[in-house]
Design brief:
This protein is an alpha+beta fold. It contains 6 helices and 6 strands, in the order E-H-H-H-H-H-H-E-E-E-E-E. Helix 1 packs antiparallel against helix 2 (about 75-100).
Length: about 325
């Protein structure tokens, strides 16, 4: 996608631009090992383009030439037929170039993608761990947590597509954010942007929870849909992927200190979880107002890991 970004911070991130392993949305990464992950195939564009430019131009032009020449039989008619063929080829090539520049040669599909798989029965140990969190933090509830997951998901994907790592710093722990920033810099250095068009969450659910004396950790499984492709940052030409809507699934793990509690506005990523000032962080995750490092999980949930579960590519 090239520039325009339409965002619905409910269940639908309508279009991330006309512009990106995930957690980035397009990129998939974690604090230690995962790198950029591509969710869609890159062969559709060249295949369709070759068929349109070669098949249509050669087949239609050749058939027209043969029919025209057989009816005329003269040298002048043959020359006229050749001129017609050349004109047809020129028009076809011009149309192909125009469509390719507009990104219309990528495959599209009217077939709806498959629905998310049904939720699996949750391990009783997960419910027990969630109950321990509620006992320490009565304001905690699953619906509120999953709403924060949706906000974080949309923020990270937008930061990825617009190549703004300072935005994703508002939700990411140190290790995963450093890798996320590196991926953005590599993509920008290659002159590309990733587009996640018509991105929306089909369903999200808590699938794991671990607590101990020091920290709480909750994993949310996100089933998302989008059209995933890369474009040249200058021309907007599609250079990888296609415009078929596909389902992909990721596990996003959030961590916080066991002493942290849910605060009013927690999870909105608009205010500092320590002092309540507008959230303004430097690269180390330090608040510009209270000077506290607030992205280490001491005050609120931070995204610590992203793992791809399924990708329909």
């Amino acid at each position: 996608m090239t520039s325009l970004v339409r965002v619905d911070l409910g269940q639908n991130l309508a279009a991330v631009g006309a512009l990106p392993a995930r957690a980035g949305g397009g990129q998939s990464s974690n604090s230690g090992s995962r790198g950029s992950s591509s969710r869609s195939s890159g062969g559709s564009s060249s295949g369709y383009g070759g068929g349109f430019g070669g098949g249509y131009g050669g087949g239609y032009g050749g058939g027209y030439s043969t029919g025209y020449n057989s009816r005329s039989g003269g040298a002048g008619s043959a020359f006229g037929g050749l001129v017609c063929i050349l004109l047809i080829v020129v028009v076809v090539v011009a149309l192909f170039v125009m469509f390719k520049r507009q990104g219309l040669t990528t495959a599209t599909s009217d077939i709806p993608p498959p629905p998310p798989p049904p939720p699996l029965p949750r391990n009783p140990e997960v419910d027990e761990a969630l109950e321990r969190i509620r006992q320490r933090d009565p304001a905690f509830d699953e619906a509120g947590f999953l709403n924060g997951v949706t906000i974080s998901f949309n923020l990270v994907q937008r930061a990825w597509c617009e190549q703004l790592p300072a935005e994703s710093r508002k939700v990411m722990a140190d290790g995963i954010w450093l890798r996320h920033r590196t991926q953005i810099e590599e993509m920008a250095g290659a002159g590309r942007k990733n587009v996640l068009e018509d991105l929306h969450i089909g369903r999200s659910e808590i699938v794991d929870c671990v607590t101990d004396a020091d920290s709480d950790s909750i994993t949310a499984r996100i089933h998302a849909y989008c059209r995933d492709y890369d474009v040249d940052a200058q021309s907007g030409e599609v250079v990888r992927g296609d415009r078929v809507v596909r389902l992909w699934t990721e596990d996003w793990t959030f961590t916080r200190s066991s002493s942290a509690t849910t605060k009013t506005g927690s999870g909105t990523r608009q205010t500092c979880p320590n002092c309540g000032a507008p959230l303004d962080l430097d690269a180390s995750g330090t608040c510009a107002y209270c000077k506290e490092m607030v992205m280490a999980g001491a005050y609120d949930w931070v995204l610590s890991r992203i793992e791809q579960v399924y990708s329909n590519v």
